[in-house]
Amino acid sequence: MTEYDLPKRTQQPQDVVVDSEGMVWYAAFGEPILGKLDPKTGKITEYPVPVLKPGTVIGTLDLELDEDQNLWLAMTFQAGVAKFDRRTEKFQVFSLPPDLNGDYVVFAVM
């Protein structure tokens, strides 16, 4: 087993997936971060996840790959989900409709 140090010792990876190219992706529970680890070089790249509701919990609860190898993150108390396109390295964020989007809505992708 090989262990890798994350950029900050306080990070709390919640979910980890490996894409078809062998890159390791992780989502942080305590902060809005999507991280990518190249296991061949040990290089870590972090992408800030957009925040929909400043002042509420900002971490993520779930990380999944779709059939096109895009990453999807459930944005915990942000009441939304984010899609990360690996090719463009850009996020697209989808918020719940206003009638379902209360102050403490927990959202997870299953």
Structure report:
The structure is a single chain. With 110 residues, this protein is mainly β. It has a single domain (13-100), classed as Thrombin, subunit H. The chain has no helices and 8 strands. It has strands at residues 13-18, 24-28, 33-37, 44-48, 62-65, 71-74, 80-85, 90-95. A 4-stranded antiparallel β-sheet has the order 1-2-3-4, with no helix packed on it. It has a 4-stranded antiparallel β-sheet with strand order 5-6-7-8, with no helix packed on it. The model has no long low-confidence stretch (mean pLDDT 85).
Under CATH, the topology is which?
Thrombin, subunit H
User: In CATH terms, what is the architecture?
Assistant: Beta Barrel
Give Rg in angstroms: 14 Å
* First and last CA, distance: 28 Å
List SSEs in N-to-C order.
EEEEEEEE
Mean pLDDT over the full residue set? 85
Backbone shape: globular
Q: Determine the number of helices (DSSP H or I, runs of at least 4 residues).
A: 0
- Fraction of residues in H or I helices: under 10%
Strand content: 35-45%
Uncertain residue ranges:
none
CATH domain class name: Mainly Beta
Count of DSSP E strands? 8
Largest sheet: 4 strands, antiparallel
**Total discrete domains:** 1
Structural class: mainly beta
Write out the strand line-up for the largest beta sheet, numbering strands in chain order: 1-2-3-4
Keywords:
single chain, mainly beta, four-stranded antiparallel beta sheet, globular
